[in-house]
Every structure is written in structure tokens, then in C-alpha cells.
Fold this protein.
Amino acid sequence: MNNIVRLFCLCFLFLLSETLSAHAVVTQYSLKITPIQANKSDNVTLTFNSKIELGLSQIYLVSKGDKHQLLTAENSSQQGQIIIHVPALDVGDYAIKFKIFAADGHLTEDVIHFTVLK
Amino acid sequence: MAGIADFLDSLVGGFDLICYALTIGGLFWGLFVLRPWNITSANSGLLLEKTIALIYKGGFLLAVAQIFKLILKVWLMTAVLERWPFPEFAQTTQFIGGIIRAILTVFLATYCYHTLRQYPYSKTHWVRAALVALPLIVSGAWLVHAAGRFDNQYLQMSLTVLHQLAAAAWVGGVLQLVNLWFLCQKKQISSEFWSLMLRRFSRFGVVAVIMILASGLPIALQYIDSWNGLVGTGYGNLLMVKIILLGMALCFAWLNKRAVDSYSASANDYIITHRVPYYIEAEAFVLITLLFTAASLASQPPTIDVPTLTASWQEVLNTFSPQIPQTISPSHTALIAGEAGRVAIIDQVPSLAATEWSNYNHNIAGIFLTVMSFFAMLSYVKYLPSPLSNLGRYLPLTKYWPLGFVGLGIFLFFRSDAETWPLGPIGFWESTFNNGEVLQHRIATLLVLLLGIFELSARMTKNPESKLPFVFPVMAAFGSLMLLTHSHVGFQAKSAFLIQIGHTSMGIFSLILACGRWLELKLEKPCSDIAGFISVAALFQIGIILMFYREPLY
């Protein structure tokens, strides 16, 4: 009986979650103020509430049909801020999807939607 | 695989805090409560041996937990980033701080194992152990929430370390009391220690709680800037859960203190030997859950950072408002048709069918639990009022209420994964072993079925020595941990928060269910009946929350 109880406890331990924990969140982003113009490469800045380990983070551009394109980014001079290099885009709906490793050890996934206008 | 790593990370965070409480709290216990250098009793050797064993075992386990946390981070990053995270990870504060903390912990545990164990009555060695622990305590500051922040960083780091220290003193002390009671119960040490340590700890505990509040309040004020933020965000919600759990633990502490005062006045030890030990066990349940909640809180973005994602108190209240349960499910075809649009990033279309499917599952599960717990409450009734007296002969049948879990398990089996057998096109074995989420649901279903069978057997067994009855409260406490430690899932979105708030409430009731049933099994009548009734009333409350559950459209 003890073995059954132990197995039972182990099974309980195997009940898992699906998503990631979240601590680093975007507190400001430049797209709010300066939308991206069509057919012109641009930079987007994201400001986080926490220090970011950029070397352990990934940023994607998501376009129609959920196609993913890896983007490059660099640290800004302001703490917690990164600059993302966005290529020239056609008019339409897009999203920036990021996986960010914060200095407090938490890995966050999030998405910011935006529209490219003429 | 990222899900497994993330979930284990939450669990290890809580386990880490328990080990920390065992080690650091154990040192506080030795220095301020036990004070071995003043002990004159001849048979105190075993007590000191066990006390120090808890400290060094906690220390070694803390080091293992710390290393395991780093391994999990590597695993998580490899799974999420789809690449090996070194050498970048080796340069992070988390990695360097984690390794340093693990080394310092091993150093402390080794000192306690090799030296303190040899000189358990020496005040000098206890003080030296505390000094050896100091770097470990300080190193923890670089691994807390505040370490990644920009504002008042060092003040927040210091306050968090103080908060952890005070909590460790309390929880570690309670765990040492449980250890002491086991020794007294087995008559391995003199029973005089029990009353003496209870008296000392009741004073020490008050100081620890004051320190917890004094260090926790400024942190809360820094991270939460409004009342709405307290009720309308994941961070605020988990803080409220912590406050409620603290309140529960303080209730037990107050019962214990009252019993100790009464013993001091009357010298009658009935309550301190027949009730207090079990109150302390229940308090330990609550405090362990509290530590896991604290670990979960550390993964939340502070309220102050998510002003646009804060739900209003009216929205929060609305999630608990009574509604007619949804008893008609959308068709399986409608559900599958809406899935592609729901999970899309661009051109996302919320799926009404998915929301209604989920509402139906929760509401029907709520009806199961409400009906079961209603019969469970009836099982405590000895006589029915006169208009219903002829139904009294059916009352003994109410003890079979755990059978409802079997029905619930069958329901979950059919409804959990719409796309798999028996409702969907994917076969049973293919879905079970190729999809981690489906595997989880299958295991959950099996567990619910087993829980029903275990609890039914436990309530019917004639063997007074059977350990079977303890499976249910332990599992309920574990269920509570699951509900509370998973509350961070997708918390950035307001709709996800509104989903989770019901789950954290159920987590608290699940803990009440666990403590109540535990005390029912341990205490004597009539206290056991009161505790048992409170326990099933908490199950009833979980059923009500599920029955009124409404998922936001997303």
C-alpha cells in the first residue's frame, strides 16, 4: 500500500503547467508614440521594469499567417531599455514576440501587436 | 518541455524556502529558544542531535535545491530559446549568485555536521554557526525580486532578506516544534521539554511575526501603489493570499499561545498534549503553503509596473457572482473549428466555443463537488429534523460521498482533451504519449479516480492504525500548492488574471480542506467533528466557485 501511495504522490508531482512565469514586463514601447511607416526600416525601443540579459533573449517579428522572423536588438544607454531593428515592412498587421530573460532569473514571453500604415 | 521546467522551478522555489527555514530557522531556534548551554536535563542528547540534524540536512538540501534551480534555468532556456544558453548564462547574476550561495550553504551545513554536532552544548559553537550563516543570508539578496530593479534596489534587497529571515525564524521554529513533539510522543526525550519550548517559542514567535510585518509592509507599499492594484493584479492577489494564510497561521498560533498560558496558570497539560501538537502540524501545513506562495509571488511583475493590465474591483467581484451553471456544451465540431483563430498571433479571433466548453467543464465539475460535499456535510448530521425524519435511515449512506470523485474522474476523462479519443480524431495511446498536456490530463483523471477510491476505503476501514485516511489531506494540501503556485500562468493579461483569481481562491479553500481533515483525524471529539465539518464545507465552497465559473472571452 505504501508503494501505491508513493506512486500516487509522484503522479501528482507530474501535473504540469504550460506557460512561463513572468516578471520582466514592458512598461513603455516606442510604437505607442511613433508608429512604423511602410517600406522603411526602423528601430523600436522596449523599456522593461527590470534589468534584461539580452544575450539570453530572442525577439521575433510575426507577420500575416504567423510567420516568424528573428530580429536583432541591442541595449540602449537607458537601463532596462532595448532597441530592436525592424526591417522595411508592407502595410498590414504585425506583432513583436519576445522571449526575455530578466536579471532576476525569470524568463518571460509576450507579444506586442502593431499596425504599419502608409 | 518548457512547461515541465517552469513548473519544477516554481516547486523548487518553495522547496528552497522550506530548506532555508530549516537551516536558518533552526539556528534561530537553537540560539533563542532551545539554548542548549542552559540545559541541565540528562536525556537531552537525542533532542540536540535531532535539532542539529534538521539544520544540516536542511542546509545540504538547500544547496541541492540551489544547484537544481540553476539546472532548471538551463533546461528552461534551452527549451524556450532552442539553443544552449552558455557562455552567456555563466555571466549572469543569477548563475554567479546561485553558485556562490550553494557553496556557502554547503560550508554552513558542513560546519554544523562536523563541528556543531560535536559540541551541541557549546554557546560559542552555536554563535559561530550563526556567523558562518551570515554570508549565506547576505548572498541571497542578489537572487531576489529587487535585484533586477532600478529603484531603491539595495533597500528593497535588504528588506526582502530581513523578511525571509523573520519568516525562516518562524517556520523553522514550527518545524522544530513538530520534531520535538515526535520525540516526546515516542518518549525518547523528557516531556518537560515540550511545555518549556512551547512557552519560549510563543514569545519568540511574536517577535518573528512583528519582524515579518515590519519588513513586508514597506516592500508591499513600494510594489503596490493603489487599493485597486491590490485586488486587480496577480501580484496583489498573491499578496492577499499570503495575508490570508498568515491570518490562518496566526489563528493556530493564538490557539497554541492560549493553551500555553492556560497550562502556565493551571498546570493541566491536557490541551498542550492532546490538541496543541496537531494545531502545530496544521500550522506547518499553512506555513509551507505560505512559503510556496511567496516563491510564486517572486515570479509576478509588481503591480506598480502593470497599471494598464489592472482589473477593477468590480471586474474581480463579478468573477465570483452567482450565475446559472452552464449545462449545455457547445458541439465538439464548433470547438475544433475555433481553435486555429484562437491561438493565432496575427488576426486572432476569440473562440466563443472554447470559452463555453471550458465554462461547461468547470461548472459541471462544480456541480459534482457541490453535491458530494453536501452529502459529506450531511454525514456529520446525527438526526434529521422531524419533517425529514423518515429519510434518516438513509443518512449512513452519506459516508459514501467520495464515490463522487469516481464520477468526476470519468467526466474529466471525456471532456479534458477535445481533440483526442474518445471525442476527437487522435487515438488514445498516440495522444497520451505524444503530447505532454494530454498526458497531464490523463494523469489528473487517474488521480481523481484514485482519490475517490482511497478516501472511500479510508472512511470504510476498520483498522484504526491505517495510514490511508491521511492520503486525502496530504493530497488536498498538495492540490492547494498546485493552485497557488500556478497562479502566475499568463498573468500579464487581465483576462488570464481574472481566470486565475478563482483558482487562487480555490487554493485557499483546498488548504482549509486539508487542515480540517488532518485535524479531524488527529483530534478527539467534539473538536474532530467540528474540524471535519469545516473541511467538507471548504470543499462545498470550491464546488460553488467552480459552479459559477465564467471564463473571459479570449
Q: What stands out?
A: The radius of gyration of chain A is 19 Å. Chain A touches chain B through 52 residues (CB under 8 Å). Residues 7-22 of chain A have pLDDT under 50 and may be disordered.
